[in-house]
Amino acid sequence: MADTPPNRDANVSPDEETRDLPNPARPPSPHAPPSTPPAANETQDPPGQSWATLTPSSPREAKPPLTPPTAPRRVGPYVLESLLGSGGFGQVWLATREGELAHTRLAVKLPHPSRVDVAAIRQEAGLWAQIGSHPNILPIFEASVYDGQVVIASEYAPDGSLADSLKRRGGKALPQDEAVQITLGILAGLEHLHSLGVVHRDIKPANVLLQKGVPRLADFGLSRALNMENPSTLPAGTPAYMAPEAFDGVRSFQTDIWSVGIMLHLLLTGVRR
Q1: Which domain holds residue 109?
Q2: pLDDT tens, 198-219?
Q3: Per the domain annotation, does 139 fall within a domain?
Q4: How many CB atoms lie within 10 A of CB 50?
């Protein structure tokens, strides 16, 4: 950053410094007293100009001062590093959990307070703890409340989601073998969830994260804990991937499978129906 010249406000650019506004030249009045020459220590105004300070009525609009960079935001034991995404539910941050012996990078969801059903999250968290380790499931490590903010921490998948991958392809279909392999991975993850009695409820490309080409299901059961829509009128989920009975509030293993079928169609055709 360039050094600021002395006696100049560092938050004001040279173009925004106080200037004199030109006043229209007026002919001298015949009755005006003779002008007095300026003292030796005074500066005479240039003809037709007044060096008065800008007033609020000036047509020039002052810019707000620059703000200094802020310190990294902290939520409980997590230091938020960069924003990964945001939406109606809240925000997702790449964060570092600072422990006594090690620092771990995680993906941290910060739901809007109006979208949170704390009792439902507490119930879902018990299920998340039972999921255990599976190559096609993205584990959730913690669901807690820090200073009134609900925090859901999961493993960080640096390769992004299946939705991100499709967007990078310009919406074009995947090669058939690749589409089938991704779908088989999704079904393997669902089989594990279903064996534990867990219904995902919101299968869609944004909830399938990729790690070195391996699909991993994320946010299972989260749509029930977060009020993504008005809970009194609309069921939770993403309409484009929901089975017909899901719109009546019916959720089952079969409705998850229906959503996978919609996704497979998308992968093979590049067209979402």
Answers
A1: 74-269
A2: 888 899 999 999 999 999 998 7
A3: yes
A4: 10
Q: Is position 123 within any domain?
A: yes
CB-CB neighbours of 107 under 10 Å? 22
**3-state SS class at 109:** strand
Label residue 55 exposed, middle or buried (CB < 10 Å: 0-12, 13-18, 19+).
exposed
> Residues 6 or more apart from 29 whose CB is under 8 A from it?
none
CATH number of the structural domain spanning residue 250: 1.10.510.10
Neighbours of 191 (CB within 10 A): 12
Q: Binning pLDDT at 50, 70 and 90, where does residue 142 land? A: confident
Question: What's the whole-number mean pLDDT along residues 144-153?
Answer: 89
**Is the pLDDT score of 255 beyond 50?**
yes
Is 256 catalytic? The answer is: no
Determine, yes or no, domain membership for 223.
yes
- Among the listed residues 9, 117, 177, 202, the single catalytic one is 202
